[in-house]
Every structure is written in structure tokens, then in C-alpha cells.
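Cont'd.
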Amino acid sequence: EIVLTQSPGTLSLSPGERATLSCRASRSINSRSLTWFQQKPGQAPRLLIYAASNRATGIPDSFTGSGSGTDFTLSISRLEPEDSAVYYCQQYGGSPPEYTFGQGTRLEIK
Amino acid sequence: QAQLVQSGAEVKKPGASVKVSCKAFGYPSATYYMHWVRQAPGQGLEWLGRVDTSDGRAHYAQKFRDRVTVTRDTSTSTVYMELSSLGSEDTAVYYCAREPPETMYFDLWGQGTLVTVSS
């Protein structure tokens, strides 16, 4: 089973700054299988980035995904207070199908 | 507008089973994988299993293989997740989520169902 490790655990930044969130896989994965979600308190997760670098419908270009192999990054430029949330990476491994999530990074905008 | 609507909150005693439903609206539901993901209070996301709505085949996370059953009813565009032998550690919000064909990501989520296990 592939383990996803996210860092940092918590990130505190100011409006207008840039956030860089990391997701590291325990072994190399197919970039097509790497996804990022945003979750705000009391809400379901929201799809941000799929296939490592593709923004989902309606996601602003301030959100950028990158990476390959074992190291993936979610960057958020021009932070706004509403970007405060927990961000999760997730990957799919086949045969048998298994979907795993990272433990999340909490982003605080102060 | 596509949406997934889940059944309401449940309170169960230890050892009991729970069955949660998820009904699809606004899209042809018979060509997607439908998943169940849970989130314990203050914790992260955990995948339980999925069902292929076209043929009913299900796959489960190793951890839950002996306790979870995911099924679908195409006549009502509804999927179900049943979890048995409940313990306090199963107290969580349970989400259904949709995976479009050959995409490996969840693009639509239900609102979540709180399951509380308490004696």
C-alpha cells in the first residue's frame, strides 16, 4: 500500500502570500492518479486538482499542481482569507483498487 | 445540476450495523464508480470502498473488507454502504463520492452522513 505524507502539518500565512504544500508518496506513482482536495469546516471535500496538474472546473488559476514520481506540490498564490482550509492529496492504486489520502495540511490565513 | 443526496444521521449501539444511502440527481448515474469515504471527528479522510454502477462489482479497502458492503440500485440511482459490527471507532461522517469513468478522482461528493456509535 502506498502511503502519502503531507507537509507541513499546519501552515500559517498572510493574505497575498504564496503557499506551498507538499505530498510525498512512499514509492513512485502515476501522476494521473494524484489528486488534491480542499475541505472547509463542516463541508465535504472539494476537487481542486486532478492528474497532478489539472485544475478542476471553476478552480481559479491561483491554484497550481505540479510534480511527478514521489514528490507532488500544490501551490496557492495570492492567498485570500477564504483559502483557509485543510488540503488533502489522494492517489489511486490499482490491482486491487485502493485509494489513499494524505493526512492533510491545515492552511491558516491570518 | 448534478448532486448526491445522502440519508440522515444515525445513532447505533456497539455491535450493530448501519446502512447509509446516497441518491444521484441530475446526471446519468449508471456509468460511474461510486465511493464511500469516512472522516472521524477531527481526523482525515479514509476510503472504504467503491461500486461500479454499471455492473454492481464492488471493491473494498483491506481494512474494511470483512465489515463493509457497497451496493447499488440502478432503478433509483441510489448506492448504499452497510457497515457491520460497529464500534466507537466507527463514529464518523460518511461521504459518498462520484468517480467519472477512467479518471481516478472524485469530482462530486454527497453532503455527508454522521454515524454515531454509542451505548
